[in-house]
Specification:
7-stranded antiparallel beta sheet; 4 helices; 185 residues; alpha+beta
Length: 185
C-alpha cells in the first residue's frame, strides 16, 4: 500500500451569499469607503442620530480591522429588520488565517481547544460540510465554521453574527445554508 499524496491547496473559494447582503472586499484599500457607504445607506432617511451612525461605523470598522489582522478576506452585512432600522446588522466575516503548512491541528483537537476557550455557553462539534471536516461553534448569536482546508494549509473561517435574531430560526438556517454552499476552486 502506498501513501496517499496530499491534496493540493485550493486556489480560491466560492460561497453563495444572498444578493441583499452588502459585500465589503477587505483585500482592497477601499474597504473603509465601502463600509461608510453601507452605514450611510442604512441610516439615510432614518430618525437615528448621527452619533448612533458613527457608533455603528466605528464598530464595523473595528470588526473589519480586527478581522484583517487575522486573515479576513470579505465582510458581508445585512440589516435584520425589514424597515432598515437595525442598529447592528447581521454579518459574515470570511477569513483564511495564515498558518504554516502541516501545522494545523486535527478537527477534533481544534474543537477541544475551542471548547476550552469558549466556555459552556457555546456548542462545539465537528461536522462534515461538502468541502471537508469542520469545527462548528454555535452560541445564541454567533455561528462559526472552521473548515479544514485541503493540502493541510489550515482552516478557513466563516464567522456569522446575528445579534438581533439569534442563531435559532430563519436567519440561523440561512447562515447554515451559506456555509454549506462553500466550494473550493
Amino acid at each position: 500500500m502506498t501513501a496517499a499524496m496530499p491534496e493540493a491547496p485550493p486556489s480560491d473559494y466560492r460561497l453563495l451569499v444572498p444578493r441583499d447582503w452588502f459585500r465589503v472586499d477587505l483585500t482592497r484599500e477601499r474597504w473603509r469607503g465601502q463600509l461608510k457607504t453601507f452605514v450611510d445607506k442604512e441610516f439615510a432617511g432614518s430618525r437615528t442620530s448621527a452619533e448612533v451612525a458613527r457608533s455603528v461605523w466605528g464598530t464595523l470598522r473595528n470588526t473589519a480591522e480586527n478581522g484583517l489582522a487575522r486573515g479576513a478576506l470579505e465582510f458581508f452585512l445585512r440589516t435584520e429588520s425589514p424597515e432598515g432600522s437595525s442598529l447592528t446588522p447581521a454579518s459574515l466575516l470570511v477569513s483564511w488565517p495564515p498558518m504554516p503548512r502541516g501545522l494545523a491541528p486535527t478537527p477534533e483537537e481544534f474543537a477541544e481547544a475551542l471548547a476550552d476557550r469558549t466556555g459552556p455557553e457555546a456548542e462545539v462539534e465537528v461536522i462534515d460540510l461538502p468541502v471537508g471536516r469542520t469545527v462548528h461553534v454555535r452560541t445564541g448569536t454567533t455561528l462559526d465554521y472552521h473548515v479544514r482546508m485541503p493540502g493541510d494549509v489550515g482552516y478557513f473561517h466563516l464567522a456569522f453574527s446575528m445579534p438581533l435574531s439569534g442563531t435559532e430560526g430563519p436567519m440561523g438556517n440561512l447562515c447554515d445554508a451559506i456555509a454549506h454552499s462553500l466550494r473550493w476552486i
